[in-house]
Amino acid sequence: MKTKLFLILFSAFFSGLAFAAHTGTLYEINSKRSKVLFHSEATLIPPSDPAKSLREKLTITYKDPEGNLAFEQQATLEGSRLIQEEIQQKQLGQTALIEVKDGKVFFTKVVDGKESTSSEKLGGTLVTTGNFQRFVQDHWKEIAAGDTVDFRFGVWDRQETVGFKIFKIGEEKIGADQALVLKMKPTSFLIAALVDPLIFKYKADGSELLEMKGRVAPKQKVGSKWKDLDAEVVYAN
Fold first, then answer.
1. Whose C-alpha in 2, 146, 176, 220 is 20 to 30 A from the C-alpha of 69?
2. How far lies 116's CA from each of 76, 106, 111, 161, in Å?
3. pLDDT, tens digit, for every residue of 41-77?
4. For the chain, how long is the longest CA-to-CA vector?
5. Where are the domains of the chain?
C-alpha cells in the first residue's frame, strides 16, 4: 500500500515556467494516451502596478472531459516566493489555505463545514504547486549540472510540510526537443520507500515542462469512493 500523502502535484501548475496561459492533458497511465481523465489550464495575472507590488496571481483549474470543475487553486506569488495558496477540492467539497507569514507556514482546511488549523516554523525553502516552476527555474543550473536540490513541500491535505528532493536522472528526445528527465522524491528513506516518485521532463534549457508522471490534484471515483490519482500529463503552451 502506498502511503496516502496527497501531493497535489498537480498537473498544470507544473507549466508555471511559462508566464502565460497554458494547458495540460491528464491521461490514464498505460493507456498510450488514449484515455483522457482531465484537462488543466493555468493563467497568470501580472502585477497591476509593479512600482507598488510585484505580487502575481496564478490560477490553475482541472476539469473532467465533460467540463465539470474538479479542482482549483490560486497562488499569490512574489517572484518565486509563495505568499499564499487557496485550494478548492470540488470533488470532495473541501477548501484549504496555505499562508506564509512571520517566519511560519499556516494551514487551514475546511471539511464538512468544520475548520482545522496547524502551523509550523518555516524551515528551508517552501514549495507548493503554485511556486514549483519558479523554484525549479531558480535552481535549473544546479539541477542540470547533476546536483540534488532539497526543499519542503506544503501538503494542504495533511496540513504540514514534507521534505523532498529533485534531481536529474537522464536525458531523452521528445519530438524535436532535447529534454532532461528529473525525479522528485521524499528525503525521508521511510517515506521514499512508500511513495512513488514523480517524473518530470523539461526542455533542456529548463524553459518549459513537457511531460509529468505521478500524483495529480484531482481524484478518480472508484465505485462510490474517491481515490488518489496518478496520471501521465502532457503540457502545451
1. 2
2. 22, 11, 8, 16
3. 999 998 888 888 899 999 999 999 999 999 999 999 9
4. 53
5. 12-236
